[in-house]
């Protein structure tokens, strides 16, 4: 009998990029078997999609209620053990809530929820269910990001004193300048996306990345957001100042109207002894900067890297690894947790990371709305 973890997926059908990413990632270490789910709000489309990707259709359901009812009727060893939530933001909370109430392990796209209140409810339910809950801040799975984290933790750059993170995209340009298009895009609809577009979509990646690699917590934020048009109620660009302590400061620069940019996510951490820099579009290179020394470039797969980095490296040095591999490392960590195997706490983002991400989104928007003032992030 297969020992693979039985996986269900909600959303991610059709030509969804995030759907492909999760499906491929789940197959990387031979830990999961995709057995069904709800790929689309229309049952016929879900069934057609299942046929297209080559899985059986007897466990394709019309909605989550039907999924839980049918799966609960199966012998325990045949039931779905973990469900991935890949739907628009407003569905994350009700779906995760119902799954937790029925004892499922969950892998959820970010942001965790659209409000901090909802996130706190899920936190309470998780404490009761004692299941595994991961939030897919995908970029934390890159081997050289994990190397960056371990180097900072081990004192390689000394005390952190400056953090600068940029996440620039230009994808919303064809939409934002057309009144009809911007009125009919779910990303710009607060009822479906939450209170923020840019900060909620990519700014939260930057926030989580900073805390992941630096080991520091952001205490306060001051945000200046841009909406571009008066009839657009969702931010599509912004600059956010960060305070970690009295003497450690930083900045997040995030935009979806950076014309010509694709996925320019750059993380720079500067310490008293050295600096480290990583670029998502060239993820195999981690740059080490030291005063009076030539620039050093660290690459994955070499013995000089940390155990955490090497564990997430699938190929010999010189063979590029990318975002599919990064998400695959997160799925691998979740599999270890579900199987109650030993795993590193940095192998996958948890609900705590998801809650802090939602907290950050709310405080950044509040800072802007209150006149660009400093706002504390709740503990």
From TrEMBL:
Q: Where is the Gfo/Idh/MocA-like oxidoreductase N-terminal domain?
A: 24-137
Question: What's the domain of life for this entry?
Answer: Bacteria
Q: Name one Pfam family in it.
A: GFO_IDH_MocA_C3
Q: Which GO terms describe its molecular function?
A: nucleotide binding
Q: Any idea where the GFO/IDH/MocA-like oxidoreductase domain is?
A: 145-276
| Name under which the protein is recorded | Oxidoreductase domain protein
Report the source organism: Gillisia limnaea (strain DSM 15749 / LMG 21470 / R-8282)
Q: Which PANTHER family does this UniProt record tie to the protein?
A: CONSERVED EXPRESSED OXIDOREDUCTASE (EUROFUNG), OXIDOREDUCTASE
């Amino acid at each position: 009998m297969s020992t693979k973890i039985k996986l269900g997926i909600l959303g991610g059908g059709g030509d969804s990029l995030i759907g492909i990413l999760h499906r491929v990632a789940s197959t990387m270490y031979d830990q999961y078997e995709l057995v069904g789910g709800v790929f689309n709000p229309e049952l016929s489309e879900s069934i057609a999609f299942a046929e297209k990707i080559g899985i059986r259709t007897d466990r394709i359901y019309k909605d989550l209620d039907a999924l839980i009812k049918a799966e609960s009727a199966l012998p325990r060893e045949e039931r779905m053990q973990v469900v991935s939530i890949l739907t628009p933001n407003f569905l994350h909370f009700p779906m995760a809530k119902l799954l937790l109430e029925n004892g499922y392990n969950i892998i959820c796209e970010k942001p965790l929820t659209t409000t901090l209140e909802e996130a706190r409810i899920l936190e309470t339910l998780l404490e009761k269910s004692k299941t595994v809950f991961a939030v897919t801040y995908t970029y934390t799975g890159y081997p050289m990001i994990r190397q960056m984290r371990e180097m900072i933790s081990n004192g390689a750059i000394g005390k952190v004193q400056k953090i600068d993170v940029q996440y620039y995209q230009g994808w919303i340009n064809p939409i934002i300048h057309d009144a009809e298009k911007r009125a009919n895009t779910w990303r710009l609809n607060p009822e479906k996306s939450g209170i923020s577009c840019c900060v909620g979509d990519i700014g939260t990646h930057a926030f989580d990345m900073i805390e992941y690699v630096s080991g520091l917590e952001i205490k306060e934020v001051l945000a200046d957001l841009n909406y571009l048009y008066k009839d657009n109620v969702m931010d599509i660009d912004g600059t956010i100042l960060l305070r970690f302590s009295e003497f450690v400061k930083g900045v997040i620069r995030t935009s979806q109207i950076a014309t010509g940019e694709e996925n320019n996510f750059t993380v720079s951490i500067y310490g008293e002894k050295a600096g480290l820099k990583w670029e998502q579009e060239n993820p195999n290179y981690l740059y080490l900067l030291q005063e009076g020394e030539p620039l050093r470039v660290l690459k994955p797969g070499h013995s000089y890297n940390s155990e955490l980095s090497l564990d997430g490296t699938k190929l010999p040095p010189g063979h590029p690894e990318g975002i599919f591999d990064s998400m695959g490392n997160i799925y691998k960590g979740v599999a270890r947790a579900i199987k109650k195997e030993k795993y590193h706490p940095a192998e996958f983002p948890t609900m705590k990371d998801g809650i802090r991400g939602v907290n950050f989104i709310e405080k950044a928007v509040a800072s802007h709305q209150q006149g660009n003032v400093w706002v504390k992030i709740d503990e």
